[in-house]
Structure prediction request, 457 residues.
Amino acid sequence: MSDSESQAGEIRQHYREYIRERTMRFGKFASVLALIFPTYYLIQDHYLLWYPVNTVPWRTLPVLIGVALLVLSMGPLARHRIARIQPAVYYLFLTSLMAMMCGVTVLYLRFQIFNAVVTGMLIVIIVIAFGSMGGFLYLFPVYALPFAGMIVYLLAFETPTKNHFIILSNPLTLLLLCSIFAEVQNRLRFREFRAMKLAEFSNLELAEKNRVIQHNNAQMQEQMNLARIIQHSIIPKSPPPMDELDIHAIYMPMMEIGGDLYDFIQFKEKNLLGVFIADVTGHGVPAALITSMLKTLSNMSGREKLAPADFLQYLNDRVIDMGTLELISAFYAIYDVETMTMRYARAGHCPPYLVRGNDAMELPGKGALLGVYRGQIFQERSIRLMSGDKMIFFTDGLIEAENRDGVQFAETMVTDLRQYGAIPIRELVNTLYDNLIDFVGEKKFEDDVCILGIEVK
Prediction:
């Protein structure tokens, strides 16, 4: 069974329950009326009309069924399983009303009051129509069985005239019209009910989808938090203690986790310090996973760490082996505090700046991005530093940040390096970051921002 057929069946089942509940509500009201009007007409028949007929059985019939209906709808029986027959008793009550009028009509067939009794039958037919919650299949038997029984009795045991049948054609016409009206009303009611249920199902489906989305978002947030904790654990919490250098870094990912990485590599030779900075294309979890992979590969490397070009070649081949589709820019340098010499190699990364006095210059170097092709060669160069020199390493999120006019921060950064080059490295890095926020106009950037500064004492 398809989902639509299952849903249609469920709607029909709900509709039947809905009709049953409404019928039970009508039953209480109808049962009270059954105690009033048939009793009144019984008194009328015997104390006002004075016709020699016995209407007691017919007037009493709906009263008795009405009392049964009232008992089923009130008290402990209303909560008992037997109360489920209440709709059937209700329609039996409606049938008894019609039977009452048909029986009384037969009794008054030869009296002048016959026309008035038939008029009363018309009223009862209308009342039954308003009191019925079902369509043609429910209402027509209520009318047809008593009325057909009356006609059969008249033809078999009485001698009705043509005028009698002409008068009885009026209730016959009315009960047919009421049956058709009840069917139309029932179909309209069902359409309204189905539309309401479909809206409820849609709302339930939407609520369930929202619940699933919220659950998935919560799980994703947990995973993001875990990824953020893991990534923060691979970012150095503090620079290595070296008396000859002052080091300060700022890392601000665009999202909770980012694709930038910087690290310090220490050697057995206390005079050496490795500085590694990388930028993975893309953002979010995939980029963060690759930065974690780079950290692991860096820790696993051996003698390659002693030569910047060899180290980048080692990372390049390992990245290709892992089959990642992301490309990585990287810069790796080794500084010797004894000779004050820095050897470095570049893999498509932003060239760092050497700030000396009021001048700022890029460090030249060639090399493609990591992960392009196996066996690529990276150019290794060296530079001798002086006391007071500052090195500014960064990722492209710094220089490519744009202001509201679409101008990038690159030229402003170089100006700032020359203007503030004489201040301590911590203040210089913080000033660059503050000026970047002022330049962009907010703390939210379109890319990860990483700034690493080293000053030679």
Remarks:
- The first helix runs from residue 3 to 49.
- The radius of gyration is 47 Å.
